Each structure stands twice: as C-alpha cells, then as structure tokens.
Predict the 3D structure of the following.
Amino acid sequence: MTAELIRGQNHPLPDTRLEIRVSAGQPIVAGVTLNDDEWRMRDVAWIAHPASPQLPGIEVSRQAAADHRLAVDLGALPPDVARVNVMLALPTVPGGPTRFGGMTAPVVAATGLDGTGIASYTLVDLDTESAVVALELYRRNDAWKVRAVGQGYAGGLAAMLQDQGLPQAQQLADTINEAVVNGMARSVPPPRPADATTTTGGGINYQHPGRQPSTPAAAPATPAPAAAGAPAQPGQPAQPVAGDAPGWSMDERLYNQVWGMFEDLARAAAAYRSAVDFADSRMDQQLERVLSDPRNRIGQAADQARAEARAKHAQLVDQARAAFDRDVAQLEAESAVVEPALPPAYARWDNPAWQAYRVPTDAPMALRLGDLSLPERAELRIPMLVRLPLERGLWIDCGRSAGSADSAVVDSHELRRLGAETATAIAARLLAVHPVGDFRVHVIDPAGSASASLAPLLETDALREPPATGVPGVSTTLARLTQRVDLVQMAIRSGAADSLPPDVDTADQLLIVHDFPHGFDDRSVTQLRYLADEGPSVGVHLMMVADREEASVYGPVLDPLWRALLRITPVPDNHLGDPWVGHAWTYEPPLLPKGSQVAAQALHQLAAARQSSGS
C-alpha cells in the first residue's frame, strides 16, 4: 500500500532500485541533485538535468513533460553521497506558468521498478515558487528513506542551486533552461482548450483517463455518432465509435478523440518499456547473485540459475508485450473507425473527404500537419493535429538528421525539393480548409528554385501574387508583413481594431520562406525573427524551408528563430516528443500522393468561389 506523505514525513525504502514518478498536468522540468552529509552539492557533476540527464545511479528526462519517470539506483551512487533531492521547476517559455501556485499541484511518487507504490506526496500550498525540492532520499544507519520536502524557491532554479552551495548556480540554471527550451521546441504542442466562443456553459476536460465519453451538460445538441459495428459481447471491449470524446461539435469531438489516442499510445508504450526495463533489471539482479560467489559461477547449478533467470525475463517481456499488443489492437480498431470520419482539415490526402470537398464557410479548429508513430508499432499512425490559428511557425528542416535514415540516403537537392513540396502541401491544406478570403499565402523564393514544387499553388491562382525573388522581392515582402503586424498590434493595444486603414489585409497570412538564407541580409533576418515572435498573435505565420547548417553563417543570432518554430521534416524523422512522457515519435510529412490532383481540385474550387464572391 502506498504511503501518502505530508510535508516533513518520511518512509523507509524497501529497495535501493526505484523509480520517481512525477505527474503535473502540464510540462515541467524534473531533475536530481546530490548532496553530501553537509547538505552541499559539491559541483555541477552532482546534478542530473535535461542538458545532462545521467549520473551514476541516476537518469532523468531529457525534456520538460507533464509526466516523468526518473530512474534511481541508490547502490550505484558515489560513496560520499548522503542525500538525493528530486527537484521540479517551471520551464521559462512564453505563455507558460510562472509559479506553481497557478497550476494543478504536482504529485511525486516513489515506486518499485514494477510500478508498486512506496510513497507519494502532493505538493500543495505552493504559491510564487517556480522551483521546488519535492522529495529527499537520504541514508540513515545504512538504510535509505524518502522524505516529503516541498521546499519552494520564488527565485527559481538559480536560487535553489545556490541554496545547495553551488557557486555557478545562475550559469547552470541558464544552461538547464536553454536545454529545456530547445527540447520543448521539438515537442508537439499540447491540445489547448477551445476558444471562449465555443466553451460557454462549462469547460471541457482534456485529460483522458480511459477516455470515457462525456458530453458537457450545456453543450448544444449534435447528431450522435454511428457505432462502428455490433455491440460488444460481455467481457469484450466496447466497439470503437467515431466522435467518442467530449466536445461541442463533431469536429471538436474528433479532435479530442485523436489526442486521446495519441496519449493512450504514448502511455501504453511507456508502460511496455518500463516493464521491459524491470525485466532486464530483475534478470541482472538474479545473475549478479549467482555470479557474486565464485563457487557458483560454473557447474550445473549455475547453468540452471542462468536458465531460470532468462526464462523469467522472457516470461515478463512476453506478458508486457501481450498487454501492449492488446492496447494497440484497440487503438488500431479505433483508428480504422476514426480516420474515415475525419473532416478535410484532419484527413489524409487519400481520404474520401477530399473527394467530397466543398469550400467551407467556417474556419476549422485544427489542422493535420502529418502523422506520428512509435517503433513498437510503426504501422499505427496517429494524426498530428495542431490547433488553429497556429501558435508557432513551422521550420521544414531540409538538412540531414541523425534521427532519420531516409535523410541519409537522399541527396541535398532532393531534400530541398521535398521540403518545398511539404510546404506546398501544408499551404494548400490551409487555404482549402479556410473560407474564401480568410487566408492568404505569400512566398519568398529568392532564386526561383521552387517553381516546380509550388505548381499546385501557382497553377490554381492560390497565390494572389507571384513568389518574391531576388533581394528587392525579399525586402518588399518582409517590409509589408512587418508593417501589417505593427499596425494590427497598435490597433489592438489602443482598442481601435475596427479602425485599421482600408488597405490592411485582415485575413490570416502565411509567409513561406524557401531556401533560406539565400537572398537575406542582416535586416531581413531581424524582420524574420520579428515575424516569428510577434506575428502569430495577430495572424501572421511563418514557414521556413531551410537547412540550419547552411544558415550557420549568422551564428547564434538565429538560435531564437529556430526555437520559436516547430521543426518538421520532409522525410520521416524521429525528433518530435509528446507532452506526456517525452517519447521520440517518428514524424511523417503530409506530402501529396504522387500524381494526385486532389489538392489542385480543391484549390480550383476555392478560386472559383473567390471569383464568384468578388473577393
């Protein structure tokens, strides 16, 4: 039975190998500091954090996440370590919480490697603190105990590290924050609540414990989704249903359902990997006991002990795999029902929804940016849905990546072509799913090298003006968009949003920058950074098609630009993290099928509707 600790209370640890599990509801940083018997952290080598996640006996998460599992082997710690502190901190990112008092109280639990609860502690009564020592594992009379600490620091990580006697506290805190920001730049944006206009009458719970369907009491009536097949037999899981999630409309329910599938697969994989790690650790312990006595290292008894250890390991792994396969089979059945029901904004290009496309009268709440999968079941692809309007711009990375076998066998020219085609596919989708006149696309192509890839946009008159080429074109386009951002921001701040000059286009804008940094000077780079930072809040969005290595001539001045954009790739690449447990997911871009005319047909319909409306 798990002991529920209050602040200051301690509890014995039954084993030296354990996990520390953190649940916070939204992304936070988790790390571990080591102290000697004088409560001092001797140097920077005594802390595990996202930029340096491993120490002897300690392993922590590499990025901020809503849930963490920290591995601890107290027997492998340096002999002069007397205390192990589990620390939590809020990432310093725009729009994120700045104090623990403004969010759900985190829960920290010590468990066995098999998940058996030992002790847990809910960090209540926090207010302005942005960093906290949650738990302390300490040695007393050759035995280890866990204590609920809950010591918070309004000064953040730097104050906490300084309190533990580290002279370079501020420098290390900056290093950790930079690593966290870089890690979050690689994460899929978590689902955000619906806009205020669609949530009148009550909020929607975006947590998915089992994802039991529940319709908000005040929600307007919507047609009940059709069940996918016969009713479930007694003892069998319920048949999947499209739209089986909370929401005020079918689109919102499907959006929530897809995110629920995403979370379920992330947690199922985490449980499977944890079970395999436990099986590995158990076998190591058994073999270690056999080999610790030289007299037992050879002979029939030793061989039998090894065989039993390996057989038990195989049994545990098989049990874990069976549970994982059962969970995934349910998700695959759900995916088979959900995919055909998705609207065009959420659907793959080969979905029949695109054959039945009609120009919409309302903007969608989200957009499919590609597919995500895990190596344990690569054929199960989860739609990567992000809310609209986009909160961050996009960076389509045309460079080679260590996480992509595909980029290693494709030459640089082909990567650039695929990058431009990925940008075209996303832009075509954005145009097609918005009402006439609500979305505009601009293209900067300094050398004119993307003309073939941009054909679906150029041949359907989806672009109101040809791509900007050369240095003059780059300067003119950037100046016009930065001026629009300035004017709209000033109008909003002065409460005069309705009095904008008549020549200011109030539609949402997407700027595609191809083959960066060619054709850009220092002033243009500064304008790009401005658009990336300030543009999304007033409807101006940036999509970069660039190889970061080629842009290295600008040095670290571009680092904030890359971090402000969500990195995606034109070939499959396992670089994106989920917001729950931080798995590395393989991203697959939303490229149009070879020879497909579905995007062109949709854009032709949009052009005809625009001509009819005179907009």
In short: Confidence is low (pLDDT under 50) at residues 194-230.
